[in-house]
Amino acid sequence: MDLGIAGKWALVCGASKGLGRGCAQALVREGVNLVINAREPGVLQQTATELLAAGDESAGATGQKHAKPQVLCAPADITTPEGRAAVFGVPGGPGRAFDIVVTNAGGPPPGDFRDWGREAWLQALDANMLTPIELMRATVDGMAERGFGRIVNITSSAVKAPIDILGLSNGARSGLTGFVAGAARSRLAARGVTINNLLPGKFDTDRLAATLTAQAERSARTLPEVRAAHMAQIPAGRFGTPQEFGAICAFLCSVHAGYITGQNWLADGGAYPGVH
Predict the structure, then answer these.
(1) pLDDT over 60 at 220, yes or no
(2) Which of 105, 191, 195, 199 is the most buried (most CB within 10 A)?
(3) What is the DSSP secondary structure assignment for residue 203, as one 8-state letter?
(4) What are the φ/ψ torsions at residue 161 (nearest 5 degrees)?
(5) Cα–Cα dist 212/125, whole Å
């Protein structure tokens, strides 16, 4: 299937590794021009080089060859006004005239809510709620004027099934979810702009590996035992891959997803047991 987005411009945040990188890879293979953002310049540049190689080989399922896309690096802290200015001002980029924006930030640390002060909450809100809103505010009106726009916010399965030790994430991401539910159903929807949230469960990323390693170190179990125990809780019997997560994201960014907006797409291998 040709997703119909070759030649468009996308901003992908947290793109140097993990799920953000999976989304960037899927988009560049569809011929989408990218501005990729993360904090570490060296890692980001290496990612850009590898994405360009993937873009050289890009072809849709129909075998149609896309023009070679551009991949531009914007190393910055996207949670700050200065970081966002750097992203929108990257030389050769589209300014604020992005067709696609994929927001993505690592979750705040786990812990006991009794230990979190105001500063911890403000940091969580800045990264996981207010920054995505700022990126939307900066881009959606231009999308509406051009008649096409796609916003995909990478949040967490914990929005649907909150985890007790992830209170900072539960609170901040749920705030974003509530905001999107209203904004996506505003006048933007009738002007070709969709806003959706993509909720990952357990995906085989560095972050998950670090979490499982820490659990193994705190217990009497080996890392393979801890991994096996977690996979046993997932009906699919495995962790997801960044590549398949990216494919879902790319579809939500496609011309074929124009009738989908204000939704929370759960990708967790069937782990969530509810119907809503």
Answers:
(1) yes
(2) 195
(3) B
(4) -130, 80
(5) 26
Q: Which amino acid is at 125?
A: L
Torsions phi, psi of 154, nearest 5? -85, 115
Q: How many CB atoms lie within 10 A of CB 42?
A: 9
- Using 50, 70 and 90 to split pLDDT, how confident is the model at 214? confident
DSSP-based three-state secondary structure for 28 = helix
Cβ contact 79:131 at 8 Å: yes
Residue 215 in tokens: 């659990």
Per-residue tokens: 193: 């702009």
Check pLDDT > 90 for residue 18. Answer: yes
What is the per-residue pLDDT across 149-208, written as a single tens digit (0 to 9) for each? Answer: 999 999 999 899 888 888 999 999 999 999 999 999 999 999 999 999 999 999 999 888
Are 49 and 273 in contact, with CB atoms under 8 Å apart? no
Cα atoms found within 13 Å of the Cα of residue 24, Cβ hemisphere only: 31
**147 by DSSP, 3-state: which?**
coil
Give residues with Cβ within 8 angstroms of 75, minimum separation 6.
Answer: 37, 38, 39, 40, 41, 44, 86
Residue written as token pair 């980001």 = 44
Please say whether the beta carbons of 5 and 256 come within 8 A. no
Beta strands in 76-136 (DSSP E): 100-103
As a whole number of Å, the end-to-end CA separation of the chain is 29
Residue 128 per-residue DSSP state: I
pTM of whole model > 0.85?
A: yes
